Amino acid sequence: MHVQTIAPFAEYAATLTRHTVRVINTADGHGLLLCNTGASGVRLQLAGRPDGVRPGGMDSTLDVLRAKIAGAVRIKPQDWMELDREYVLYQQRSRCTLSAAVTACQQGRGEEAMRLCRASREDAAHQAAIITLAAEAHPAGSLPGAGLANHAALLVQQCVAEALPCMIAQGPAAAVTRLRHGVTEITAALSAQGEPAAPDNASVRKLLTLATRLEADPSLTPQIPVPASPMQPVG
Q1: What is the model's pLDDT at position 28?
Q2: Domain hosting residue 58, numbered range
Q3: How many separate domains does the chain show?
Q4: What is the pTM for the complete model shown?
């Protein structure tokens, strides 16, 4: 393992959460995330909603509100509060799974790192869907936690969670390519929203810094066990 190569990812992950994250195997095979901050800690389910709740018998509050909108049912303020709370839950888990993925990568567990990156991307996509729904249907156009102001940071996180599997499977040069492509995609998305373009956006600067550091020595190839059929990064 080339620690120098993983270090930029570890430093980025450290900006996402101060938790020390451990993956705990469970009898049902889904697993838990144990996230500790000093004497306190929280357990997050790795499957379904992070808190294990099925609101209204559905997989998520997002599904509940989508069903209400489709059925022309009035959405109450409490519904929006629950959706905002769900956003925070998925935000916490998406950040913790990415942090756990970097740790797994550092310890040579490439397959686990790739699985955790996929989970982080899926949770980030859920967050993005909440932001979109709030923008389209909330009276104020956004929620306190799930606002368009968070969109750039969320896109950057998704890109990093795609780049790390690229590095595991193909090496740092592939990760740099994905990161540079991500900068182009995110800049276009920000421009469409009227946000500052790279490198003026702080979130995009993090992505550029990560790519630049990896470019410093793209010949490094981490010695990480890779599954026979590597997981392909998904958008």
Answers
A1: 76
A2: 3-215
A3: 1
A4: 0.85
